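Hi again,

Forgot to attach this to my earlier email, sorry! This is the prediction with S-adenosylmethionine bound. I've pasted everything inline since the attachment limit keeps bouncing my files.
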Amino acid sequence: MRMNDTGILYLVGTPIGNLKDITLRALEILSEVDMIAAEDTRHSKRLLEHYEIKKPLISYHQHNAKGRAELLVQKMLSGENIAVISDAGMPGISDPGYWVVKEAIENKVTVCPIPGPSAAISALVVSGLSTDRFIFEGFLPRKKEELKRRLESLSHETRTIVIYEAPHRIKQTLRVCEDYFGLERHGVVARELTKKFEEIRRGTLAELSQYFSERQIKGEFCLLIEGAEKIEVEKAEWWNVITEREHVDLLISRGLSTNDAIKEAAKTRNKPKREIYNDYHQET
Ligand code: SAM
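C-alpha cells for the complex follow:
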C-alpha cells in the first residue's frame, strides 16, 4: 500500500462459539491489517492467539463507539487498514459496528465486508420456521412500557421474528411473549449455537415457557417466533396493528380533543379509559 492512500475498513465476521467457524479470508485480512478494533480486546486476544495473529488491538465498544469511530477513521484517512471485530459474529449486528461504518462512509473511506457467522441467521436456518421472510428485532426494549408497545406492534407480524435475549431474561421474555402472541404460537429457542451444549428447542410458546421455567438457564440465546397466519391478521381488528398511543394520536389527527380521543380509543379497544389515559400521559 502506498503511504498516501486511504486505508480500508474491514468488518470481519468471527465465530459465535466454535473457533473453527472463521473463514480463510477473515484470517488473511486479520493478519494483514495495521490494527484490529475489538469490542473486548481480552476476549478477542484468545481468538487471535489461537490463530497466531499478532496485531495492535484497540478497544471499540458500546461506551466509546462514537469517539473511537472518529479516531479509527482518522487512522484510515492517513492510510491504515483497520479490521473491526465484535465478541462474536458479524460486527454491526446488535453491537457497536454501525458507528464506525457510518463515520467511514461520511469520510469516503471504503468499507469492505468479510462475511462470517451470525447468531440470528444460524438460528433462523435451523429453526424450522419460515425463512422466506423474517424480521430481526435484536434485543427487545428493557423498559416495560416500551416492551409492551414493541410486542403489541409485533403481535400481528406475519414474518418470522428473530430476537436476541440474555440468559437472565429468557424466562420472563417467554412469559410476556405468551401474552402477546398467544400460548399456541410456535417458537424456537436456539441456545449456545456451535458450542458444546448447543440446544435447539421447538414448541409452542406455552411449552417453551414451561420447559425453561423448570431449568437453570445458562448460555447465549436466540428466540424465534413464527409469524402470525395471514388469515389471523385479516380477522383481527384494524387497531390491533397499532399501539394505544398511535390509536389516540390518529384520532387526534382526525380532529378529536385528546380526552375524546382517549375515550374513543378506550371504547374501541374495550379497555378502561383510565388505563389508556395513564399510558398516554405517562410517556408524553
Ligand atoms: N454480532 C453478533 C451476531 O452477529 O450474531 C451478535 C452480538 S449480540 C451482542 C450477542 C447476542 O447474540 C447474544 O446475547 C445472543 O442473543 C446471540 N448469540 C451470540 N452467540 C450465540 C450463540 N452461540 N448461540 C445463540 N445465540 C447467540
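The beta strands are 8-12, 35-38, 57-59, 82-85, 110-114, 134-139, 160-165, 186-191, 199-204, 221-225. The chain has a mean pLDDT of 93.

That should be everything now.

G.
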